[in-house]
Amino acid sequence: MSANPKISRPPKLLDRLRRKIRLLHYSKLTEDAYADWATKFILFHG
Q: What would the pLDDT profile of 17-41 be if each residue is shown by its tens digit?
């Protein structure tokens, strides 16, 4: 049997963050800033 390539995975954290920011109608610059801060936070804390 081969693995099913259409199995969906839940969206990654930053994808979920960006989706939520878009739902709140924040600007693209705000979205980028929030994603940047979240990335830095994740990298800092491992």
A: 999 999 999 999 999 999 999 999 9
The residue segments making up the domain with residue 25 are 13-45
* Alpha carbons within 13 A on the beta-carbon side of 34: 17
**Which 3-state string (H, E, C) describes 1-46?**
CCCCCCCCCCCCHHHHHHHHHHHCCCCHHHHHHHHHHHHHHHHHHC
Number of domains in the chain: 1
Q: Is residue 3 part of a domain?
A: no
pTM: 0.72
- Confirm whether 8 is domain-assigned: no
